[in-house]
């Protein structure tokens, strides 16, 4: 039996023709669960009707509420404003944990805090849990004493539930022993033989509203109980969990919007000092720039189209698509776009170019004198599909090498994978509007609490904010952006330009990741 609305609208159509009387056409209107509609449905269905709730029952009102949510495109939410994590909306970069962007989330009952890396390039949220092999939580050589890394346990949370193999979000049915067994998960990555595996769990994620009332919200989400980690998850990357923000149904933003907690959108603000903010349900502002996402139905990602590049006074018509990935520190371009952009940049630079150094990921590097004026460096902007302009605030990185300073065009040549990385996002608030399928952006001060927050936020110590680091994308499956999962959230500008030591750049370049799903 179809559960769609059966409405017959009453219409009054009057047609005056000279001295003729107007005609009135009248139709009856019936409620979708009325007795009349029920009789009509019985005539079409052999046997008793399924899912027909009694008037006034709990199921009756649940059906109506679910229908309203669908009819209005999820414009009806449990909370009208924005949501963030119960510990606040601040995000920050941590040097001793791979220069990734982190925030604190609270899971379960009683609540247990986790320091998780935020990642728009992957979908699954997972934390270390009942570990067979996880990162050490008390290694003084890896972590500062300020960090308290947690281990989740199903038995210690009063609200935990197992996700069975019959659940619609269980993707590994072939590895299930039975429909009532725990649903297993396994995510493998190309880079550094990094992976996580375990079982899926259903438990409470603690959130709060971003308004003056500051209501605390408990939302049930599905996440990975990460029992076995390998590779970089054991030391430099996300040792206490990874918070996937992707478009798949398993991601937390997908679950929160599907359950009516928020609008299907979120924003991330990237401050120039390494601090930022994240806000769920944020739809942005009417004055923001926008471009549509290119959605691959098989595996949707935040992929955008770039129509033109402007370097200084030169306009380059070089259309390409790219993954808009906050989990990658620098931007990666394949030929011909890379060659056109870098050669145009070089032709407008007045300083002496240094010979390529195989230990440095950037090809176009120049001597910088102590009194150098960065305003003479060519500007860089992108024209996105739809005409939106993205002005890159600082397209260079400054490298300190002994008694010398060099600056490099902070774009890495890729074989065939284009990634717009975080160095192009610094100084902006980006809105990932998954309902409208658009990316929005606007220059923004992440500390402007009048615009981005309605309540006092916790103070972030930015005294020792680390510099940005380069990330090397894997070459495997480079032509398949729909198959990649990125889990390295790294830095924004530490000053007016990126500045780091030579050894730091090399070490971080080797240690950093762009993770691709095998």
Automatic annotation (TrEMBL):
Compartments reported by the entry: Cell membrane
Keyword Protein biosynthesis among record annotations: no
Signal peptide interval: 1-22
Keywords: Aspartyl protease, Cell membrane, Glycoprotein, Hydrolase, Lipoprotein, Membrane, Protease, Signal
GO cellular component terms, semicolon-separated: plasma membrane
InterPro entries on file: Aspartic_peptidase_A1 (IPR001461), Aspartic_peptidase_AS (IPR001969), PEPTIDASE_A1 (IPR033121), Peptidase_aspartic_dom_sf (IPR021109), TAXi_C (IPR032799), TAXi_N (IPR032861)
The keyword Nucleotidyltransferase is assigned to this record: no
Pfam family, one: TAXi_C
Top-level taxon in the UniProt lineage: Eukaryota
Example GO molecular function: aspartic-type endopeptidase activity
Chain ranges of the Peptidase A1 domain: 101-442
Catalytic residues of the enzyme: 119, 325
Record-level GO BP terms: proteolysis
SUPFAM superfamilies: Acid proteases
Bilayer topology: Lipid-anchor
Family from the record: Belongs to the peptidase A1 family.
PANTHER family in UniProt: ASPARTYL PROTEASES, OS09G0542100 PROTEIN
Protein known as: Peptidase A1 domain-containing protein
High-level lineage: Eukaryota, Viridiplantae, Streptophyta, Embryophyta, Tracheophyta
